Amino acid sequence: MYKKRIAYPEFVDFYLPFGGRLRADNRWVQMSRIIPWKEIEPRYANSFSKKKGRRAKSVRVALGALIIKEKLNVTDEETIMQIQENPYLQYFLGFESYQEDPIFEASLMVYFRKRLGSEIIAEVNELIAKKFVEKKQSKKSDKKDDSDDDQDNEGQLILDATCIPQDIRFPTDVGLLDDARKKLEGIIDTLYAESGLKKKPRTYRIRARNQYLTFARGRRRTRQQIRKATRQQLQYVRRNLKTVKELIKTVPMSTLSRKEYKDLLVIQKAYDQQMYLYREHKHSIRGKIVSLSQPHVRPIARGKARGAYEFGAKISAAI
After folding, report:
1. Are 163 and 301 in contact (CB under 8 A)?
2. From CA 152, how far away is CA 154, in angstroms rounded?
3. How far apart are CA 86 and CA 8, in angstroms?
4. Which residue has the higher pLDDT, 308 or 274?
5. Axis-axis angle for helices 173-195, 205-216 (nearest 10)
6. Which of 225, 187, 226 is nearest to 203 (CA)?
7. For residues 160 and 250, what is the distance between their CA atoms, to the nearest angstrom?
8. How remote is the C-alpha of 13 from its chain's centroid?
9. For the whole model, what pTM was predicted?
10. Is 56 within 8 Å of 48 (Cβ atoms)?
11. Using CA atoms, how far apart are residues 149 and 146, in angstroms rounded to an integer?
12. What pLDDT was estimated at residue 267?
Protein backbone atom coordinates (compact mmCIF):
# COMPACT_ATOMS: atom_id res chain seq x y z
CA MET A 1 0.00 0.00 0.00
CA TYR A 2 1.24 3.49 -0.85
CA LYS A 3 0.03 6.77 0.65
CA LYS A 4 1.03 10.00 -1.06
CA ARG A 5 2.97 12.59 0.86
CA ILE A 6 0.97 15.81 1.27
CA ALA A 7 3.95 18.09 1.82
CA TYR A 8 7.71 17.89 2.23
CA PRO A 9 9.60 19.66 5.03
CA GLU A 10 11.03 23.09 4.43
CA PHE A 11 14.74 23.52 4.78
CA VAL A 12 14.50 25.91 7.75
CA ASP A 13 12.19 23.54 9.68
CA PHE A 14 14.56 20.55 9.84
CA TYR A 15 15.18 19.82 13.53
CA LEU A 16 18.57 18.86 14.92
CA PRO A 17 18.40 17.57 18.51
CA PHE A 18 22.07 18.36 19.16
CA GLY A 19 21.74 21.98 18.08
CA GLY A 20 22.98 23.90 15.09
CA ARG A 21 21.44 24.12 11.65
CA LEU A 22 21.96 22.79 8.15
CA ARG A 23 23.87 24.82 5.60
CA ALA A 24 21.88 25.91 2.56
CA ASP A 25 24.88 25.51 0.25
CA ASN A 26 25.36 21.82 1.06
CA ARG A 27 25.34 19.60 -2.04
CA TRP A 28 22.53 17.36 -0.73
CA VAL A 29 20.35 20.36 0.11
CA GLN A 30 20.89 21.83 -3.34
CA MET A 31 20.26 18.49 -5.05
CA SER A 32 16.99 18.03 -3.15
CA ARG A 33 15.73 21.25 -4.73
CA ILE A 34 16.60 20.14 -8.26
CA ILE A 35 14.86 16.74 -8.20
CA PRO A 36 11.10 17.06 -8.97
CA TRP A 37 9.83 14.72 -6.25
CA LYS A 38 6.15 15.62 -6.73
CA GLU A 39 6.21 14.90 -10.46
CA ILE A 40 7.82 11.50 -9.89
CA GLU A 41 5.51 10.37 -7.07
CA PRO A 42 2.37 9.52 -9.15
CA ARG A 43 4.34 7.20 -11.43
CA TYR A 44 5.88 5.46 -8.41
CA ALA A 45 2.56 5.20 -6.56
CA ASN A 46 0.87 3.35 -9.46
CA SER A 47 3.04 0.29 -8.78
CA PHE A 48 1.40 -0.24 -5.37
CA SER A 49 -1.99 -1.41 -4.23
CA LYS A 50 -4.16 1.38 -2.79
CA LYS A 51 -5.67 -0.67 0.04
CA LYS A 52 -3.72 -3.90 0.66
CA GLY A 53 -0.34 -4.43 2.27
CA ARG A 54 2.01 -2.49 4.51
CA ARG A 55 2.50 1.18 3.93
CA ALA A 56 5.44 1.64 1.58
CA LYS A 57 8.27 4.10 1.87
CA SER A 58 7.80 7.36 0.01
CA VAL A 59 9.30 7.90 -3.42
CA ARG A 60 11.69 10.41 -1.94
CA VAL A 61 13.08 7.80 0.45
CA ALA A 62 13.28 5.12 -2.25
CA LEU A 63 14.74 7.21 -5.04
CA GLY A 64 16.88 9.28 -2.67
CA ALA A 65 18.46 6.16 -1.17
CA LEU A 66 19.37 4.86 -4.63
CA ILE A 67 20.86 8.22 -5.56
CA ILE A 68 22.92 8.26 -2.35
CA LYS A 69 24.20 4.74 -3.02
CA GLU A 70 25.31 5.56 -6.57
CA LYS A 71 26.72 8.96 -5.66
CA LEU A 72 28.83 7.59 -2.80
CA ASN A 73 29.56 4.29 -4.60
CA VAL A 74 28.94 2.14 -1.51
CA THR A 75 27.07 -1.05 -0.65
CA ASP A 76 23.44 -1.21 0.48
CA GLU A 77 24.49 -1.70 4.11
CA GLU A 78 26.93 1.21 3.98
CA THR A 79 24.20 3.38 2.44
CA ILE A 80 21.95 2.78 5.49
CA MET A 81 24.81 3.64 7.85
CA GLN A 82 25.61 6.83 5.94
CA ILE A 83 21.96 7.92 6.11
CA GLN A 84 21.82 7.13 9.83
CA GLU A 85 24.91 9.22 10.60
CA ASN A 86 24.38 12.18 8.27
CA PRO A 87 21.55 14.70 8.88
CA TYR A 88 22.01 16.15 5.38
CA LEU A 89 21.19 12.76 3.88
CA GLN A 90 18.12 12.44 6.08
CA TYR A 91 16.90 15.86 4.93
CA PHE A 92 17.57 14.76 1.35
CA LEU A 93 15.23 11.81 1.97
CA GLY A 94 12.49 14.15 3.20
CA PHE A 95 12.62 13.67 6.98
CA GLU A 96 11.53 16.55 9.20
CA SER A 97 14.09 15.89 11.95
CA TYR A 98 17.21 13.90 12.63
CA GLN A 99 16.60 10.19 13.30
CA GLU A 100 19.12 8.33 15.46
CA ASP A 101 17.89 4.84 14.57
CA PRO A 102 18.32 3.21 11.13
CA ILE A 103 15.71 4.50 8.68
CA PHE A 104 14.98 1.11 7.12
CA GLU A 105 16.57 -2.26 6.51
CA ALA A 106 19.20 -2.66 3.83
CA SER A 107 17.14 -5.41 2.19
CA LEU A 108 14.58 -2.79 1.09
CA MET A 109 17.13 -1.40 -1.38
CA VAL A 110 16.45 -4.46 -3.56
CA TYR A 111 12.74 -3.62 -3.71
CA PHE A 112 13.48 0.05 -4.42
CA ARG A 113 15.46 -1.00 -7.48
CA LYS A 114 12.60 -3.24 -8.65
CA ARG A 115 9.96 -0.54 -8.18
CA LEU A 116 12.04 2.18 -9.79
CA GLY A 117 12.83 0.46 -13.07
CA SER A 118 14.87 1.79 -15.96
CA GLU A 119 11.84 3.58 -17.47
CA ILE A 120 11.13 5.56 -14.31
CA ILE A 121 14.81 6.39 -13.85
CA ALA A 122 14.98 7.64 -17.45
CA GLU A 123 11.90 9.76 -16.86
CA VAL A 124 13.48 11.16 -13.70
CA ASN A 125 16.60 12.13 -15.65
CA GLU A 126 14.49 13.92 -18.27
CA LEU A 127 12.53 15.81 -15.61
CA ILE A 128 15.73 16.86 -13.81
CA ALA A 129 17.37 17.97 -17.07
CA LYS A 130 14.24 19.88 -18.12
CA LYS A 131 13.99 21.61 -14.77
CA PHE A 132 17.68 22.50 -14.83
CA VAL A 133 17.38 24.03 -18.32
CA GLU A 134 14.30 26.02 -17.32
CA LYS A 135 16.06 27.28 -14.21
CA LYS A 136 19.12 28.27 -16.23
CA GLN A 137 17.01 30.09 -18.82
CA SER A 138 15.11 31.97 -16.14
CA LYS A 139 18.39 33.11 -14.55
CA LYS A 140 19.66 34.23 -17.93
CA SER A 141 16.51 36.23 -18.61
CA ASP A 142 16.73 37.84 -15.16
CA LYS A 143 20.30 38.90 -15.86
CA LYS A 144 19.28 40.47 -19.14
CA ASP A 145 16.49 42.39 -17.44
CA ASP A 146 18.72 43.65 -14.63
CA SER A 147 21.65 44.64 -16.84
CA ASP A 148 22.16 46.38 -20.17
CA ASP A 149 25.00 44.00 -21.01
CA ASP A 150 23.88 41.71 -23.86
CA GLN A 151 26.70 39.20 -23.47
CA ASP A 152 25.54 35.64 -22.84
CA ASN A 153 28.94 34.37 -21.70
CA GLU A 154 28.97 32.69 -18.33
CA GLY A 155 31.00 30.10 -16.43
CA GLN A 156 34.70 29.36 -16.67
CA LEU A 157 36.57 27.98 -19.68
CA ILE A 158 39.38 25.53 -18.89
CA LEU A 159 41.97 24.79 -21.56
CA ASP A 160 44.59 22.10 -21.37
CA ALA A 161 46.92 20.23 -23.71
CA THR A 162 47.37 16.50 -23.43
CA CYS A 163 48.81 13.56 -25.34
CA ILE A 164 47.02 10.49 -26.69
CA PRO A 165 49.65 7.77 -26.19
CA GLN A 166 50.19 5.22 -28.96
CA ASP A 167 50.85 1.56 -28.33
CA ILE A 168 54.45 1.42 -29.50
CA ARG A 169 57.68 0.08 -28.07
CA PHE A 170 59.86 2.72 -26.43
CA PRO A 171 61.96 3.90 -29.37
CA THR A 172 65.75 3.88 -29.56
CA ASP A 173 67.88 4.68 -32.60
CA VAL A 174 69.53 1.27 -32.62
CA GLY A 175 66.22 -0.54 -32.17
CA LEU A 176 64.63 1.47 -34.98
CA LEU A 177 67.50 0.58 -37.34
CA ASP A 178 67.22 -3.08 -36.39
CA ASP A 179 63.51 -3.06 -37.30
CA ALA A 180 64.34 -1.33 -40.59
CA ARG A 181 66.99 -3.96 -41.37
CA LYS A 182 64.57 -6.86 -40.74
CA LYS A 183 61.87 -5.31 -42.92
CA LEU A 184 64.36 -4.75 -45.72
CA GLU A 185 65.42 -8.38 -45.52
CA GLY A 186 61.79 -9.41 -46.05
CA ILE A 187 61.51 -7.05 -49.03
CA ILE A 188 64.71 -8.51 -50.52
CA ASP A 189 63.29 -12.03 -50.14
CA THR A 190 60.11 -10.98 -51.98
CA LEU A 191 62.00 -9.36 -54.85
CA TYR A 192 64.51 -12.20 -55.14
CA ALA A 193 61.73 -14.78 -55.46
CA GLU A 194 60.46 -12.98 -58.59
CA SER A 195 63.84 -11.98 -60.00
CA GLY A 196 64.95 -15.38 -61.34
CA LEU A 197 68.51 -14.83 -60.08
CA LYS A 198 70.51 -17.93 -59.24
CA LYS A 199 72.46 -16.40 -56.37
CA LYS A 200 70.65 -14.64 -53.56
CA PRO A 201 72.10 -11.25 -52.52
CA ARG A 202 74.04 -11.37 -49.28
CA THR A 203 72.42 -9.54 -46.32
CA TYR A 204 74.51 -10.70 -43.31
CA ARG A 205 71.28 -11.05 -41.34
CA ILE A 206 72.63 -13.51 -38.77
CA ARG A 207 75.68 -11.38 -37.99
CA ALA A 208 73.59 -8.21 -37.82
CA ARG A 209 71.06 -9.84 -35.50
CA ASN A 210 73.74 -11.16 -33.17
CA GLN A 211 75.41 -7.75 -32.97
CA TYR A 212 72.11 -6.11 -32.11
CA LEU A 213 71.27 -8.68 -29.41
CA THR A 214 74.72 -8.28 -27.85
CA PHE A 215 74.10 -4.55 -27.61
CA ALA A 216 70.48 -4.85 -26.41
CA ARG A 217 71.34 -7.26 -23.60
CA GLY A 218 73.93 -4.94 -22.12
CA ARG A 219 72.70 -3.24 -18.97
CA ARG A 220 74.96 -0.21 -18.95
CA ARG A 221 75.88 1.16 -22.35
CA THR A 222 78.49 3.82 -22.84
CA ARG A 223 78.28 6.50 -25.48
CA GLN A 224 80.94 4.74 -27.51
CA GLN A 225 78.98 1.45 -27.44
CA ILE A 226 75.81 3.19 -28.60
CA ARG A 227 77.61 4.90 -31.50
CA LYS A 228 79.27 1.64 -32.48
CA ALA A 229 75.95 -0.25 -32.53
CA THR A 230 74.32 2.59 -34.47
CA ARG A 231 77.12 2.59 -37.04
CA GLN A 232 76.85 -1.17 -37.50
CA GLN A 233 73.10 -1.13 -38.08
CA LEU A 234 73.39 1.87 -40.41
CA GLN A 235 75.85 -0.08 -42.53
CA TYR A 236 73.49 -3.06 -42.80
CA VAL A 237 70.51 -0.85 -43.64
CA ARG A 238 72.53 1.03 -46.27
CA ARG A 239 73.66 -2.26 -47.83
CA ASN A 240 70.10 -3.63 -47.90
CA LEU A 241 68.73 -0.43 -49.45
CA LYS A 242 71.37 -0.68 -52.17
CA THR A 243 70.40 -4.31 -52.79
CA VAL A 244 66.71 -3.37 -53.08
CA LYS A 245 67.53 -0.71 -55.67
CA GLU A 246 69.51 -3.24 -57.73
CA LEU A 247 66.66 -5.77 -57.62
CA ILE A 248 64.06 -3.20 -58.61
CA LYS A 249 65.93 -2.73 -61.91
CA THR A 250 65.02 -6.29 -62.91
CA VAL A 251 61.77 -6.80 -60.95
CA PRO A 252 58.75 -4.45 -61.28
CA MET A 253 57.80 -2.45 -58.21
CA SER A 254 54.29 -3.98 -58.36
CA THR A 255 55.83 -7.18 -56.99
CA LEU A 256 55.82 -5.60 -53.55
CA SER A 257 52.63 -5.45 -51.54
CA ARG A 258 51.17 -2.12 -50.54
CA LYS A 259 52.52 -2.49 -47.00
CA GLU A 260 56.02 -3.43 -48.20
CA TYR A 261 56.12 -0.44 -50.52
CA LYS A 262 55.03 1.87 -47.72
CA ASP A 263 57.64 0.36 -45.38
CA LEU A 264 60.32 0.92 -48.02
CA LEU A 265 59.51 4.63 -48.26
CA VAL A 266 59.45 5.04 -44.47
CA ILE A 267 62.72 3.15 -44.03
CA GLN A 268 64.48 5.34 -46.61
CA LYS A 269 63.40 8.47 -44.76
CA ALA A 270 64.29 7.01 -41.36
CA TYR A 271 67.72 5.99 -42.65
CA ASP A 272 68.40 9.52 -43.92
CA GLN A 273 67.43 10.95 -40.53
CA GLN A 274 69.55 8.47 -38.56
CA MET A 275 72.58 9.04 -40.81
CA TYR A 276 72.29 12.80 -40.30
CA LEU A 277 72.02 12.39 -36.51
CA TYR A 278 75.01 10.04 -36.45
CA ARG A 279 77.24 12.33 -38.47
CA GLU A 280 76.24 15.50 -36.61
CA HIS A 281 76.37 13.87 -33.15
CA LYS A 282 72.77 14.87 -32.45
CA HIS A 283 69.77 13.11 -30.91
CA SER A 284 66.77 15.00 -32.28
CA ILE A 285 65.58 16.27 -35.62
CA ARG A 286 62.36 17.84 -36.80
CA GLY A 287 59.81 15.20 -37.81
CA LYS A 288 61.88 12.34 -36.41
CA ILE A 289 60.41 8.90 -37.11
CA VAL A 290 60.16 6.81 -33.93
CA SER A 291 58.02 3.94 -35.27
CA LEU A 292 58.20 2.35 -38.74
CA SER A 293 54.68 0.97 -38.49
CA GLN A 294 53.28 4.32 -37.29
CA PRO A 295 55.51 6.99 -38.84
CA HIS A 296 53.04 9.75 -37.91
CA VAL A 297 53.75 9.29 -34.17
CA ARG A 298 55.92 12.03 -32.68
CA PRO A 299 57.71 12.37 -29.33
CA ILE A 300 56.22 15.06 -27.08
CA ALA A 301 58.23 16.47 -24.17
CA ARG A 302 56.00 16.29 -21.07
CA GLY A 303 58.44 16.51 -18.17
CA LYS A 304 56.42 14.10 -15.99
CA ALA A 305 57.87 11.99 -13.21
CA ARG A 306 57.08 8.70 -14.96
CA GLY A 307 58.70 9.77 -18.22
CA ALA A 308 60.12 12.87 -19.85
CA TYR A 309 58.50 12.05 -23.20
CA GLU A 310 55.22 10.65 -24.43
CA PHE A 311 54.62 9.32 -27.92
CA GLY A 312 51.38 10.07 -29.72
CA ALA A 313 49.16 12.87 -30.96
CA LYS A 314 48.95 16.13 -29.08
CA ILE A 315 45.46 17.55 -28.59
CA SER A 316 43.92 20.56 -26.86
CA ALA A 317 40.94 19.94 -24.57
CA ALA A 318 38.44 22.63 -23.60
CA ILE A 319 35.90 22.33 -20.79
Report:
1. no
2. 6
3. 19
4. 274
5. 160
6. 187
7. 54
8. 44
9. 0.47
10. yes
11. 9
12. 94
